[in-house]
Amino acid sequence: MPSVMLKKNAEGKLVFYVPKKDLEEVAESIEFDTPDKWGGEVLLSDGSKYYFDPVNAQPDFPVTLRAKRLDSGE
Amino acid sequence: MAALTKEETEALIQEVLEVYPEQARKDRAKHLAVNDQSLEKSNKCITSNRKSQPGVMTIRGCAYAGSKGVVWGPIKDMIHISHGPVGCGQYSRAGRRNYYVGTTGVNTFGTMNFTSDFQEKDIVFGGDKKLAKIMHEIEELFPLNKGISIQSECPIGLIGDDIEAVAKKANKEINKPVVPVRCEGFRGVSQSLGHHIANDAIRDWVLENRDGDDTFPTTPYDVAVIGDYNIGGDAWASRTLLEEMGLRVVAQWSGDGTIAEMEKTPKVKLNLIHCYRSMNYIARHMEEKYKIPWIEYNFFGPTKIAESLRKIAALFDETIQAGAEKVIAKYQAEYDAVIAKYKPRLQGKRVMLYVGGLRPRHVIGAYEDLGMEVVGTGYEFGHNDDYDRTIKEMGNATLIYDDVTGYEFEEFVKKVQPDLIGSGIKEKYIFQKMGIPFRQMHSWDYSGPYHGYDGFAIFARDMDMTLNNPCWKQVKVPWKTDGSSKVAVAASA
Fold first, then answer.
1. Nearest CA to CA, how far is A24 from chain B (Å)?
2. Predicted TM-score of the model (pTM)
3. Buried-exposed string B146-174: b where 16+ CB fall within 10 A, e elsewhere
4. Which residue in A has a C-alpha nearest to residue B389's C-alpha?
5. Could you tell me whether strands B373-379 and B350-353 are parallel, antiparallel, or unpaired per DSSP bridges?
6. Least Cα separation, residue A5 to chain B (angstroms)
7. What are the tens digits of pLDDT across the range B191-219?
8. Where are the alpha helices (DSSP H) in B219-297?
């Protein structure tokens, strides 16, 4: 359950940062990304997958959330 | 010597690794790589931020060095107590040349050493009482200090002193910020964790001090310079450029910085990060808590300066953007003259770097502006994200080495035969004795500043002065030199 810091970059894409691992990746896709639902599976550009418990509103980025690691992508 | 191909560089790494026992070879192999610009992520080619192998020569520092030496030490109006035995503080005192304005010993304390000078009895009975006493002594002797930080040395963590409790009590008594920093040297694999711990201490003990206090008048152009330690005056050379383009620099972290500036930083509009490695943590924290965006910039060499000024200006309105162009135009004649003077003397020379923090990638642009080529680079204590940012800066098939050992570095240099090496004091004399020009790139070899346009002129002069120094022709023994230089020696003798 890593703490993940999420922010939007200049292109509006979600940037994923795990401090403990110095992992800085752009999120390729997010399962739920609508104004009234956000979260689910997030696929990063290096192929790894993380899961966020869906919430009923867009989080106020930048924000730190707990994620579950699903697949290392290796 | 011509540039190595990818295969040759790989063969070189294998050759160098050969002498190690199997286990060490396997481990070290992960830290040496051939640069490949097509890679997006460094973790495919290099491992970093791992414990150094026992038995090899590493030049890494400790967490205390990262906190007291790098992050906290330059804050000039605070007193930083090296809490523990006397050596750690004394042997790192004033060595980093973080310049500052002020009267040392009266209102600034940068080059002084304050220590609790632990003795056996302090280890046996604990040092908390001594620490509390020291703070009152400091208050009496140096009443103009603006705060105290307690930089723990190894024994503090080992004997389990409660410096936080002492700090809280002292804070009430002297009514100034007292910051306990748990930067015992044994934490982590290098000084890098010390930076992180120091950042966290700032976050927990300093940054919130002025939350809810709006008496500080702000402007839309407020910025903070973060991660510039004013080595040889670097931060001043950077600050003038930012101010000339119309920005207001509220805080300098931490070269020539004060605690008041740090407390005001949450009020700025943008954080500018120079040394990403040592201060990205606090920038990320401020981004989340205060919604202050941050960007990295690079003030080494005119190409990167112009790029950075435009990148910073793009986040502000037209007046700042026009200001940036004005600054670039204003200094153009100056830096063109520097390039015209030194480029012919330095063109085509090859450089190998091995430093810490931001320089292994940031100074590449400055060398390229002078027509030089960086053929090898490496970080003492970099992490993956540093190498991610390095891959694109370096040419293909160049060497990248992480936490390089004394032996490896020497062998690489023997094979690659660079014209100049930029590294630290511990490497300096080895390579000078090998007859290779060397610049000490941690503290600019007692020169500087190297940041900004003013700094670039000094940088170019220093590189030329070192590289084209006639002494290098005298290093070889007479029976190994050719006839022409022998005549020169005789003529000058």
1. 7
2. 0.94
3. bbbbbbbbbbbbebebebeebbeebbeeb
4. A24
5. parallel
6. 8
7. 999 999 999 999 999 999 999 999 999 99
8. 234-244, 259-264, 276-290
